[in-house]
UniProtKB/TrEMBL annotation:
Segments traversing the membrane: none
GO molecular-function terms, A-Z: ATP binding; protein kinase activity
Protein's name in the database: Protein kinase domain-containing protein
Protein kinase domain segment(s): 1-142
PROSITE patterns in the cross-refs: PROTEIN_KINASE_DOM (PS50011), PROTEIN_KINASE_ST (PS00108)
InterPro entries per record: Kinase-like_dom_sf, Prot_kinase_dom, Ser/Thr_kinase_AS, Ser_Thr_protein_kinase
Length: 142
């Protein structure tokens, strides 16, 4: 369940998307942990606030006014130039590169989870299926 509203904090007002999650805290602990550390990359939609309730938890995310990539590619009246396609692909690649640099696997990358901000940049979102991987490096000689 996602709602939109204004968030007043530190003397500022931001328009946010509020994702209301029902269920056990243990079930969404990973999403909360991953979302809350991913705030400082232009191609990642990171969590900017967490509000626990009695029966739910509300996660606040920056509002992306351009909608999701699904909406853009399904609009029959919208022509997407090859240059714009390349720009979108590079944004997605940069976001995924950043996640992988932190050993985070998204595991649900799809057009619905790619949001467009007011500048036209893509942000990767929805870390509900994501996992942090501890890599074991192996090396063979010979």
């Amino acid at each position: 369940d996602v709602r939109f509203g204004e968030w007043y904090h530190d003397g500022n007002v931001d328009i946010v998307a509020a994702k209301v999650v029902f269920g056990e805290l243990n079930e969404i602990r990973t999403e909360i942990a991953i979302s809350s550390v991913l705030r400082h990359h232009p191609n990642i939609v990171g969590c900017c606030g967490i509000f626990p309730g009695v029966e739910n938890i509300t996660l606040l995310f920056p509002f992306y006014s351009g909608g999701c990539l699904t909406q853009i590619i399904s609009d029959k009246n919208l022509h997407i130039s090859p240059a714009r396609c390349l720009s979108l692909a590079l944004d997605i690649a940069e976001g995924m590169k950043y996640l992988h640099s932190l050993n985070i696997l998204h595991r649900d990358l799809k057009c619905d989870n790619l949001l467009i901000d007011y500048l036209g940049r893509v942000g990767v979102c929805d870390f509900g299926l994501s996992r942090v991987v501890v890599s074991k490096m192996t090396m063979s000689v010979g």
